[in-house]
Amino acid sequence: MDPNGNMLRWEAIRVGSLGGLEELFEAYGREHPFIVTEPGEVARGKKNGLDYLFYLYELCRDLLIQVQNIAREKGEKCPTKVTNEVFRYAKSVGANHINKPKMRHYVHCYALHCLDQATSDNLRRAFKERRENVGAWRQACYMPLVAIAAARHGWDIDALFNTHSHLSIWYVPTKLRQLCHAERSNAASTSGDNLPPF
């Protein structure tokens, strides 16, 4: 069952079973817009909640494994990140709801969910309570990630992504990289330290 209460047989689909994937994705049809939901809350009406959004990132991971297996069988180079090849494969098996613009748009939100679920959940609850839209929530996910990158890797957001198994397959958003660089520069100028370049 997916986070929106839809019965799925994803767990029964073996990696490499193309027919199973096509059957799975037929049920989705047209994708609905996202709304801010609390953890565990099922979205109502023609909307999708944030648990479902994060679930799509897990599906992308499985699709990447499928693409890697196909590449190995053909003796070709295996992608290590979710690339256009993975999105094309998703479309070919009927997963039209998994597309590059959407998955890249929210990847930093998924990163926050992976790295600090408590902060992510609190942010979701606060934005739901204030009836904020998903765009405002998305923007609010940036700065907690910058703080995590500062604390764990000296603002090196690439290192932060690369050391996490669920994030290493995703490209770091340009805006997130720019925010980390700006915060690092601000910290250096405030403290007077000459921090080494990235």
UniProtKB/TrEMBL annotation:
Q: Any keyword Transcription regulation?
A: yes
- Give every Floricaula/leafy DNA-binding C-terminal domain span: 29-188
Q: Show the Pfam families listed in the entry.
A: C_LFY_FLO (PF17538)
GO CC, alphabetical: nucleus
Family in the record = Belongs to the FLO/LFY family.
Subcellular location as annotated: Nucleus
Molecular function (GO) terms for this protein are:
DNA binding
- The entry's protein name is Floricaula/leafy-like transcription factor
Highest taxon of the lineage: Eukaryota
Q: What does this protein do?
A: Probable transcription factor.
Q: Source species, please?
A: Striga hermonthica (Purple witchweed)
Q: Which InterPro entries match?
A: FLO/LFY_C, FLO_LFY, Floricaula/leafy_C_sf
Q: Which GO terms describe its biological process?
A: regulation of DNA-templated transcription
Keyword vocabulary terms for this entry: Activator, DNA-binding, Nucleus, Transcription, Transcription regulation
- Where the protein is mainly located, per its record? nucleus
Q: Is the Transcription keyword given for this protein?
A: yes
